[in-house]
Each structure stands twice: as structure tokens, then as C-alpha cells.
Amino acid sequence: MVDFQSRDTSRGFDDEDSPDDDSPAEDGHDEGHDHGEGDHSHDEDDHHAHDVESLGAAVVTVSSSRSLSDDPSGDAVVAALEDAGHTVVSRDLVNDDRDGVQGSLDALVRRDDVDIVVTTGGTGVTPDDVTVEAISPLFEKELPGFGELFRSLSFEEIGTKIVGTRATAGVADGVPVFCLPGSENAARLGTEEIIVEEAGHLAGLASRE
Question: Structure pTM?
């Protein structure tokens, strides 16, 4: 049984939505030390010392034509996160409305039980695709590598059509936020192949004091 609180603030979903500088090598360079090969494992362990193994995740579907009971892309994100051992603490559906999307995200990243947020939908090029415009102003740091890698992986499946997606990610109020397209395949690919692999590491770094 899914462990989350559902909140449907829309009537539907539009399924037509077509590291920082902290790497181990750079750490050693910044300290002015010439590490030998035997020190590399220690550097790697230290680099991952703040990783979060079990995350509290919020999943947001941006849509004006679907409901939480008919949301295959959101279902795919939830399944991938839970299969990786994380807990979905919130699952929402919001309309394709810039203020509504921004308000929802702003509230989620302020919650103590939310370590990451994953959105699906609203990253295309139609007039009502406003997820990127709504969320980007909240980023204190952008993670351009996420969108670059997602598009690279997606190119193998859909070819040059990938130019129509603006999948992006960033850190808002110390919480990594990942914005995926609204198709089920895209949501599954981005979550399984990228987010579950790096979210714990990014969440640990973003919240480190």
C-alpha cells in the first residue's frame, strides 16, 4: 500500500506533454595535497559521507485533464522511488497554472519530511506547459546535468523529438527538485535511471551545513 497523503487539486492530466564542485578529485586539489592512489577510496567515502539512504519524496503531477486515479506517469515515479527503498510522503495533482504549481512546490520544499520533489508534466512547449517557468525561480542552484543526461537517454528512444522537452532540476530551499515530462515512459526513465541513482547523494549535499 502506498504511504502518502493524496491531494487532488485538479480535474486531470495532460499526457500529451510531449554537482556541485565537490567531486573527490577536486576536494584533494583544493586542499593542496597530492594524494597517492591509496587515498582515493578514502576520498570517495568522504564524498558520500552525507548521502541520505532513505528519502521522503513528494510527487507532483502537473495536469489539467487527469486525476490521481488515472495518472500513469505519477504511478511510475512512485513505483520507482518505492522500489528503491524511499517513502512517498506526499502525492499531489495540480492544474497547469503557474501560480498554483509554484505555490505547491514552495510549500513542499518547506516540509520537514520532504527530502526530494519529483514533478511530472508541463515541461513541453505548448502554452499551458508552465512547470519550468513556475519552479525555476525557486531554484537557488540549478542542476543542468539532469536535463542533459535525461535528453541523452531519451534520444535513444524517441530521437530528435527530444528537443521538445525541457526537463530540468535544481535545489529549492535545500531540497533537490526534478521536473520530468508527462509521459509514462519519460517519467519511468528519468526516475529509474537518474533520480534513484543520485537523489540520496544530492539531498545529502544540498542539506549539508
Answer: 0.78
